[in-house]
Design brief:
The structure is a single chain. By secondary structure, this protein is mainly alpha-helical. The protein has one domain: Iron/manganese superoxide dismutase, C-terminal domain (minor pseudopilin epsh fold). Helix content is about 50%, strand content about 10%. It is globular and about 50 Å long. Bound molecules: fe (ii) ion (FE2). The site of fe (ii) ion has 7 residues, from α3.
Length: about 220
């Protein structure tokens, strides 16, 4: 059951791998680099996607060449590797999910099954949002805060250090905020919490809701 959940959650990631070479490519953003302003500036998007994510992709391709991980899915590598391969595979997976969950027409609140599940777990969406922001702001150093789904379907908030992703602990990633300084420092300097609070205005809840699996 857990394996089926993970495979279905991340099936779209497979599309970013070249079937011919088995190497990873850089995803294209589903919006223009300035489209998320003023929440995230054009310059931050250009650097974050074009330099940081591109760097993780390039490094991962070099690291997995001629190893047992060559040609394997990102989630497989994250679940089975360690060290620099784990961190780079995790960062590629993290950033694909991150960039694809935003839209210039985003914002508002979740709907449908995900909204009901959040309310069951946290009482109200505002209570969930406050807890999520708090966990992201409190994470020491670089990492991620995730809304994730356990193998039995329960929603949880996870703090993931460095390049880790919820799939490392058998969970399904639903919504992830990047708290590495490269995600916000140009726009918000050291005001991480202010940045996290602003991200709700660009969340594409349709994309995020589709990641949620029926328990
Ligand atoms: Fe990042």
């Amino acid at each position: 059951m857990k394996r089926i959940l993970l495979l279905s959650a991340l099936a779209f990631v497979i599309a970013t791998t070249s079937a011919q070479t088995g190497f990873w490519g850089l995803i294209q953003l589903p919006y223009a680099s300035e489209a998320l302003e003023p929440v995230i500036s054009r310059r931050t998007i250009e650097l974050h996607h074009g330099k940081h994510l591109a760097g993780y992709v390039e490094t991962l391709n070099l690291l997995v060449k001629d190893t047992e991980y060559e040609g394997k899915s990102l989630e497989h590598i994250v679940r089975h590797s360690s060290g620099v391969i784990f961190n780079n595979a995790g960062q590629v997976l993290n950033h694909i999910l991150y960039f694809q969950q935003f839209s210039p027409q985003g914002g508002g609140v979740p709907t449908g099954r995900l909204a009901r599940a959040i309310e069951e777990q946290w009482g109200t969406f505002d209570d969930f949002r406050e807890e999520f922001e708090k966990r992201g702001a409190a994470l020491f150093g670089s990492g991620w805060v995730w809304l994730a789904q356990t193998a039995d379907g329960t929603l949880i908030i996870l703090q993931e250090p460095g390049g880790s992703n919820p799939v490392a602990s058998g969970c399904r990633p639903i919504l992830g905020f990047d708290v590495w300084e490269h995600a916000y420092y140009l726009d918000y300097e050291n005001r991480r919490l202010e940045h996290l609070r602003s991200l709700w205005d660009i969340i594409d809840w349709q994309v995020v809701g589709e990641r949620y699996a029926r328990p």
